[in-house]
Amino acid sequence: MGCGPRAAIIRLARLFTMICKKVINVEELERLQRYAAETMCLMEVWFPPSFFDIMVHLPIHLVRQVKLCGPIANAWCYPVERHLHVLKKYVRNRAHPEGAIANAYVFDEALGFCTEYLKLYPFTRRRIWDDEEELGDCGELLEGKALHRELTNEERRAIHSWIIRNSEATREPWR
Question: How far apart are CA 7 and CA 81, in angstroms?
Fold first, then answer.
């Protein structure tokens, strides 16, 4: 492999690829430790001292952690941090962050359950309702030939009675 900063970065990427495997050969760990040390030395050659803070030498310790604890993919906190980021976005009221997180989490769970329930039923298209929209203006297509029919007197009385009982204008104030 050629030399230069690109080679050092590629070696570091390979080191992380080897460390992050789910199955690691125990015999390779000693060679991996030397590879990590050589990579750090190569980085010291190409990068200025101001680049090296406490985190740059972390790969050497990660190889040691693999020796002691096994594959580090099981011990890393990335999934936990990702979930904490989601919970942090739930905060709307900074005075009560716990309550805001709890409300949003319950809302999210309820929405998830509703979505799972509604997956049982096929839908034809997405519908966004407008409060000012009349029911006749929905744009749905009706199949079949339209029939003209006159209401009987009994049907008219039933419709009239329902309108009187359920109309806002005729509703009793104590109801």
Answer: 31
